[in-house]
Amino acid sequence: MAVLGIIGSGKATAKIVTAGLDDRRALIDEDKDDFWFIVAYDGKPSASLSAALKWLAAKKTYYELVVPTRSKIDDDIVSDAAKVYKAADIYADVVKRLEDEEGDDKTLLVLYQEDDEAQDDAVRLALARSIDTLDLGNALEPFEVEEGTAEPEEEEAEPDDEDETPPAKTPASKRAAGTVPPPPAKGKPGRPRKVVEPVEIDEPTPVLPGPEEELEEAPEAPKRRTRAAKAPETAETIVASHQDQLADSIVDKFFARLAAALVAASSD
């Protein structure tokens, strides 16, 4: 018993797809073996997959479907299928069902579409399980895994002590990718205010005397005389002061005349 799986949604023409299926059927008929298909179907088939499904209906070939888990597909393709399965990854599920089938003749036909990760993963899985994997949209060209050569890791040269330079510092303004800077603070529109930082004044620390030292008494501040501190001069004080001055003047004049008379007498 030969079983064939069909996956993919490539853009191959109906003529190429039909020719590939005819060739594969002819090869199986030469061995006088029966065959059937299991197809990954998402309900929105490409033109190439539609051509393959029409071929199955025209040849009245037995086929089963694998549809997405949450799909609600209700069309002629589903109703004509012998069995319908649901799976999260319909391509990988087709490969696993091929692997579980008894018999040695297992083939995966791929309608190849570039940049289809699910399809590529299924192809790798089929090749790893030793399942023949052919490109149905390219004359049944077999697939093979590309062998990439890993480049040897370059050993980092140890820097000399003399030539060692410190790593450049990343500016603080650069963030790590992704951090959102915090939202700007909300404020009233207008000119920004300049914030003046307060100046710190160093206050002298008072020195306390030790147990044996005595505090020196600070000198008393000189007393400042004010007009209110002067004693008021009375009239009697003023008269007495003038009398003393008049008496001194009379005495001085008397002695001056007496001296002049004595000088005149002695000259006679």
Describe the structure.
Among the domains are: 2-142, Rossmann fold (3-Layer(aba) Sandwich); 235-267. The longest helix has 33 residues, at 235-267. Strands 4-3-2-1-5-6-7 form a 7-stranded mixed β-sheet, sandwiched between helices. Helix 1 crosses helix 2 (47-58) and helix 4 (90-100) runs parallel beside helix 5. It is of the alpha/beta class. Residues 149-155, 167-196 and 226-231 have low confidence and may be disordered. It is built from 6 helices and 7 strands. The relative contact order is 0.11. The chain has helices spanning 14-30, 47-58, 76-80, 90-100, 117-128, 235-267; strands spanning 2-8, 35-40, 63-68, 84-87, 105-111, 132-135, 141-142.
Give the topology, please.
Blueprint: E1 2-8, H1 14-30, E2 35-40, H2 47-58, E3 63-68, H3 76-80, E4 84-87, H4 90-100, E5 105-111, H5 117-128, E6 132-135, E7 141-142, H6 235-267
Parallel strand pairs: 1-2, 1-5, 2-3, 3-4, 5-6
Antiparallel strand pairs: 6-7
Tally the helices.
6
Order of strands, main sheet, comes to: 4-3-2-1-5-6-7
Number of strands: 7
Uncertain stretches = 149-155, 167-196, 226-231
Mean pLDDT: 75
Q: What pattern of helices and strands is seen along the backbone? A: EHEHEHEHEHEEH
Question: Which terms would index this structure?
Answer:
Rossmann fold; seven-stranded mixed beta sheet; 6 helices; 268 residues; alpha/beta; 13% strand; 7 strands
Describe, in short, the structure shown.
By secondary structure, this protein is α/β, with parallel strands linked by helices.
